[in-house]
């Protein structure tokens, strides 16, 4: 599971997506998630899927790597899809039992929800895989800069988000170590009824929480020892700059939006 989880990791590369400005990738990611909800037929979802796979191709990272990255979240996605199918009525009714029903509209809606979740995960993962944590922090701080007028600690918020993304793989590795230690003591995961499985999870969460707090304390001590003060006006060693490829990315998103609206109306 550790090798399959790719969200939050950075992979160095020289692809076109790697060379995009971090602000461009972050804004484009949120913009893509926003226009994703405009899709309402198979043509629009096909266009968004082709676009997402084209973006992955430009990263230079294997498609198989991304598909494996979705597997740890597949049960959560399927659970959401099943709920969508059971509580969406309309069209031909295939099965009905009390408040639950499976209809043609429900099946189509479930497929669309599944595609939507997968595309969001793919695009979000593209951003983290091709952007260093430091660049991501600078991009978040730049985007949130207008909120400084409201006395919002923009730099601290950006740092917290970046650290949270950075420590996702670390926490997964810690979980894997704890599970191996519990297996060495005779604990069996995934066996028994639901109550027994919940009891088995408790010995994982407690040491994981303790380890997380210890890591957070060590990180805070290291930052204080280096004189970090987020509320002070700080200079930057790296300055984010826009390039021609960022402009091209903007035009591509505009073209995608036009195509999406056109297919939605037709």
From TrEMBL:
Segments crossing the lipid bilayer: 20-39, 45-66, 73-95, 107-129, 242-265
Secretion signal, residue range per the UniProt entry: none
Major location category of this protein: membrane
Superkingdom assignment: Bacteria
GO molecular function: transmembrane transporter activity
Subcellular location: Cell membrane
Keyword flag RNA-binding: no
Membrane topology annotation: Multi-pass membrane protein
Any one of the GO CC terms: plasma membrane
Keyword terms of this UniProt record: Cell membrane, Membrane, Transmembrane, Transmembrane helix, Transport
Entry keyword annotation includes Transmembrane: yes
Functional note: Transmembrane (T) component of an energy-coupling factor (ECF) ABC-transporter complex. Unlike classic ABC transporters this ECF transporter provides the energy necessary to transport a number of different substrates.
Family: Belongs to the energy-coupling factor EcfT family.
Summary of subunit composition and partner proteins: Forms a stable energy-coupling factor (ECF) transporter complex composed of 2 membrane-embedded substrate-binding proteins (S component), 2 ATP-binding proteins (A component) and 2 transmembrane proteins (T component).
Designated name of the protein: Energy-coupling factor transporter transmembrane protein EcfT
Organism: Listeria riparia FSL S10-1204
Lineage: Bacteria, Bacillati, Bacillota, Bacilli, Bacillales
Gene from which this protein is expressed: ecfT
């Amino acid at each position: 599971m550790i090798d399959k989880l790719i969200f939050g990791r950075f992979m160095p590369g020289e692809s076109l997506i790697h060379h995009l400005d971090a602000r461009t990738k972050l804004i484009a990611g949120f913009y893509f998630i926003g226009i994703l909800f405009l899709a309402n037929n198979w043509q629009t979802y096909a266009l968004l899927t082709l676009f997402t796979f084209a973006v992955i191709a430009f990263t230079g990272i294997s498609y198989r790597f991304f598909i494996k990255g979705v597997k740890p979240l597949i049960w959560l996605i399927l659970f959401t899809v099943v709920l969508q199918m059971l509580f969406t009525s309309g069209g031909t009714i295939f099965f009905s039992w009390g408040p639950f029903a499976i209809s043609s509209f429900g099946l189509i809606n479930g497929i669309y929800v599944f595609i939507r979740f997968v595309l969001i995960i793919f695009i979000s993962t593209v951003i983290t895989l091709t952007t260093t944590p430091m660049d991501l922090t600078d991009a978040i701080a730049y985007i949130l800069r207008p909120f400084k007028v409201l006395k919002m600690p923009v730099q601290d918020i950006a740092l917290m988000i970046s650290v949270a993304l950075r420590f996702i793989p670390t926490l997964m590795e810690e979980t894997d170590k704890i599970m191996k230690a519990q297996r060495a003591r005779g604990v069996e995961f995934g066996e028994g009824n639901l109550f027994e499985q919940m009891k088995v999870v408790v010995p994982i969460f407690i040491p994981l929480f303790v380890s997380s707090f210890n890591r957070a304390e060590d990180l805070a001590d290291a930052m204080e020892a280096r004189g970090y003060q987020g509320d002070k006006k700080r200079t930057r060693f790296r300055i984010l700059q826009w390039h021609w490829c960022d402009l091209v990315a903007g035009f591509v998103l505009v073209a995608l939006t036009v195509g999406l609206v056109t297919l939605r109306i037709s």
